[in-house]
């Protein structure tokens, strides 16, 4: 499914019964004025970690987190980066986005460091920059058969790709991160929806210039439109740390596949972080029926959205308030955050304050 970017000027964070914020701290946890202080006061505040104040992703040479802190960064659309114990994981590679789509604050040539590249599926708004990023990082590219075939078409050497089935038996270990792929079902939309959304852009904004249209078309061409992506070609990924801390990332959501249901059973009673899309349906009532069921399955301690920002001419910017309100009311054990592009989301993975988090880089 194709969507993308927007820099937000506000951050909303919530816990079931607590919202704490300061000028540099916007997080759910214990607010002691100088940053997030854990229940175990011997632990340094997350705000003291340079990686938790820098807006430079680790894949671009930014600082790596210290100790057992994990850092997630949203890089637009469904792109995320995970840094933990010296390992850098890139999720999706859609950085050079279509003209007039919000800028991410970096360019593709800056992405030079990674241990592994994960591609959820082969639509252009998930895979378009995979060849350049793979060449610059030398990292393996993991995905479904459709995904790795498309990666090779785009220029990734076959020897640098790893094809997975997503049957919950495959495991890949990079340092202290074990990665498991799961076959999931891609979203579907009503006939005519994309035409109506394109018409809305045409009605409410000036047309693209010839140069902008040329760039838009070039980006859109770097990906596959194989219809089998919907039922066969999409993967979710689970990250497991040595202490059992778990993160689940999907870059598309429909109804759960049998493999996803099995994964949720395997991970019960829940995970530490769940990252799921809030798209493609612009009507919140419709999208809730898809996104929320995955939250119910995995019951994350922290939810982070993806794929909710706009792609010029194709998708709108989907406001998160309806989803956050439902989480607050129906899943009180789940906190949530709306990150900004490149802002570090620093999470404790051990100790009495496990799952406390801090969103840094504010005003720096």
Automatic annotation (TrEMBL):
The keyword Signal applies. Residues 1-26 form the signal peptide. InterPro entries: RibonucZ/Hydroxyglut_hydro, UPF0173_UPF0282_UlaG_hydrolase. It comes from the Bacteria. The keyword Signal applies. Keywords: Plasmid, Signal. This is MBL fold metallo-hydrolase. It comes from Caballeronia insecticola.
